[in-house]
Every structure is written in structure tokens, then in C-alpha cells.
Amino acid sequence: MPRLILLRHGQSQWNLENRFTGWVDVDLTAEGEAQARRGGELIAEAGFRPDVMFTSVLTRAKRTGALALDSAGLKDVPVVEDWRLNERHYGGLTGLNKAETAEKHGADQVKIWRRSYDVPPPPLAAGGEYDFAADPRYAGQTIPDTESLKTTLDRVQPYWDAEIAPRLKAGEDVLIAAHGNSLRAIVKLLFRVPDDAIVGVEIPTGNPLEIDLDGELRPTAARYLDADRAQPLPALPEA
Ligand SMILES: O=C(O)[C@H](O)COP(=O)(O)O
């Protein structure tokens, strides 16, 4: 039966600075690089040899995947990049400090923006420093100016259905190196997490999440490979 590993990128510079990042292309810190390599060692220890790695177009995810494959001795695994695996777009919060934003708007409001299912942050103003409209990575695409987890799932799911699910259904093992919220979207989809329960799902940086799937791509088992840095997982969905 197919196996899937979800790997959130290692600590980024803006994770360290506690800033809303979204689509801004910040790199890994040295700690983030070490997390990525450690993730690769754990993947090798688990005997996991993906047939393909999917990742986003953002450096922190791409480098995490590459470092993990390298340290797992799996440099030859083919890599497929797509912006639909990007982090959720943080709209007008992009670049702001999370703690300062909580002081200004209240911790409850910031939690709603960060963890609610369908409340997006305010939109990004066009033409500013973080407007990605002219970025060649998104040429010809209609891109958002903010995203909730719901609208993130709305662009992750068609990609999952068209490109990732068929590989798993064909019996291939798949690694996805991506982001906290694009991976929360995939967890919501696979585990059928109710809208009001996804608030409790956190995915740690650089800790591979192994999910065993049945032929219908229903999870039959799931575990973080670094048990010391694990977070609670949703219940396995009923058949
Ligand atoms: O984009 C970001 O700021 C983080 O990578 C994820 O942010 P979150 O923990 O606020 O969802």
C-alpha cells in the first residue's frame, strides 16, 4: 500500500523572526538546514524511498526537500515543483511580526487569522513590496491577494487530485516537502478533519509525517518520525 511523507520545511529566517511569511521567499536558517538533514536521516532510517518528491516554488521548501533527500542518500528521486503547494498567502499581514500584530489586534483575532478554517486575513494591497503579480513563477496564473485555509485547500486539492493522488493510487511512495498550511490542507483532506477541528492541527518544522494509505488513499496509520518533536494528529478516518 502506498506511503506518503509530509515534510514541512525547516525553520526559516522569518519563522525565527516570528513574521507572517506566506509567499515571501525567505531562506532556511542554519537550524532549519539541520532540521532538514535530520529529517532526511529519519526518512532513511524508516526505509522510505519515495518514487517522487513534490514541492512548492518557494526556496525554504525546495531546499528542505533537497537537503533531506541528500542526507537520506536519495538524491536521484525526481522532483516536481508547483506553486499550488505554496504556503497559504498571508495577505495584508505579510511581513508583519506575529507578536506585535497580536498586541495591536488582540490574540483572539490573530488566532482566527492564523488557525480558523475560512477567515482570510485582510487582502494585500496591490503594488506593494509583497505583491507577487510580476513574479515570473506565477506568470499566466490567477493568484490570490490573501488566503484562508479553505481557499488554500481550494487550490491544493485540484493539484492533489490531478498530480499526486494518481501516483499514490498507482502504488508509488510520495514525499511532499511544503509548508505548514499547505500541509494542514492535505491533512484536512486525507483525515477528513471537520472545519472546526482543523484549528488544533499544528505541523512542526522539519519533522517527517509518515502516513500509510489504503487503496482509496484513506490513512490507516500515521506517525511523526521524530517522536520527540511530534504534535497531536487527527483520528484516523473511518472506512
Ligand atoms: O507563513 C508563515 O508565517 C508560517 O510559515 C506559517 O504561519 P502560521 O504558523 O501563522 O500558520
TrEMBL record:
UniProt pathway: Carbohydrate degradation; glycolysis; pyruvate from D-glyceraldehyde 3-phosphate: step 3/5
Q: Which residues bind substrate?
A: 8-15, 21-22, 60, 87-90, 98, 114-115, 180-181
Annotated catalysed reactions: (2R)-2-phosphoglycerate = (2R)-3-phosphoglycerate
Supply the alphabetized keyword list: Gluconeogenesis, Glycolysis, Isomerase
EC class: isomerase
Q: Which GO terms describe its molecular function?
A: phosphoglycerate mutase activity
Question: What biological processes does GO assign it?
Answer: gluconeogenesis; glycolytic process
Q: What Enzyme Commission number(s) does the record list for this chain?
A: 5.4.2.11
Q: Which residues form the signal peptide?
A: none
Which Pfam families does this UniProt record tie to the protein?
Answer: His_Phos_1 (PF00300)
* Role noted for this protein: Catalyzes the interconversion of 2-phosphoglycerate and 3-phosphoglycerate.
Family as reported in the entry's similarity comment: Belongs to the phosphoglycerate mutase family. BPG-dependent PGAM subfamily.
Q: Cross-referenced HAMAP family, in alphabetical order?
A: PGAM_GpmA
Q: What is the name listed in the Swiss-Prot or TrEMBL entry for this protein?
A: 2,3-bisphosphoglycerate-dependent phosphoglycerate mutase
Q: Which organism is it from?
A: Brevundimonas viscosa
What is the gene name? gpmA
